[in-house]
Design goal:
Blueprint (H helix, E strand, L loop, with lengths): L1 E7 L1 H5 L3 H10 L3 E8 L3 H7 L9 H8 L4 E8 L2 H9 L12 H5 L8 E3 L3 H11 L7
Antiparallel strand pairs: 1-3, 1-4, 2-3
The structure holds adenosine-5'-triphosphate (ATP) and magnesium ion (MG).
GO molecular function, one term: nucleoside diphosphate kinase activity
Function: Major role in the synthesis of nucleoside triphosphates other than ATP. The ATP gamma phosphate is transferred to the NDP beta phosphate via a ping-pong mechanism, using a phosphorylated active-site intermediate.
GO biological process, one term: UTP biosynthetic process
Length: 137
């Protein structure tokens, strides 16, 4: 069993979609073992998306991620990292497969409802940025 890190982004909390997204996550067999609603600081968002800092959309991305509350989560299950990426769908909702979270809910490539770690190593680092061990059960 494996863990991945998930964020329900500000467009999800704004539209009251946290329960609907969690239903898709749980139906896919992923267990929500950590969950907290927070307001991300600019510093947290810049650190979290540091790999994208040279990209043209970086400023917009940090603005968006700090524009409202987010729900940070730890998901657990067999092949959780790859499974959650599959459940999320493509970054651009126009390219996302039927039934995926982004196909069902995302509004644009920028406001795309969810984040999921792209590797087991990144999942560990991202979980550690937002959770202590006693907050996961
Ligand atoms: P995430 O890291 O959020 O799970 P991802 O791995 O599918 O998404 P990345 O390439 O890591 O996609 O991009 C990180 C985030 O940056 C995207 O989820 C999206 O919110 C934003 N982003 C990516 N490409 C664009 C773009 N062309 N224009 C605006 N925002 C973008
Ligand atoms: Mg990514």
């Amino acid at each position: 069993t494996e863990r991945t890190f998930s964020i329900l982004k500000p467009d999800a909390t704004r539209r009251n979609l946290t329960g609907a997204v969690n239903a898709v996550i749980e139906a896919a067999g992923l267990r929500i073992v950590g969950q907290r609603r927070i307001r991300m600081s600019r510093e947290q968002a810049e650190k979290f998306y540091e790999v994208h800092k040279e990209r043209p959309f970086f400023g917009e991305l940090v603005e968006f991620m700090t524009s409202g509350p987010v729900v940070v989560q730890v998901l657990e299950g067999e092949n959780a990292v790859a499974k959650y990426r599959e459940v999320m769908g493509a970054t651009n909702p126009a390219q996302a497969a039927e039934g995926t979270i982004r196909k069902q809910f995302a509004e644009s490539v920028g406001e795309n409802t969810v984040h999921g770690s792209d590797s087991v190593d990144n999942a560990k680092a991202e979980i550690a940025q937002f959770f202590t061990d006693d907050q996961i059960a």
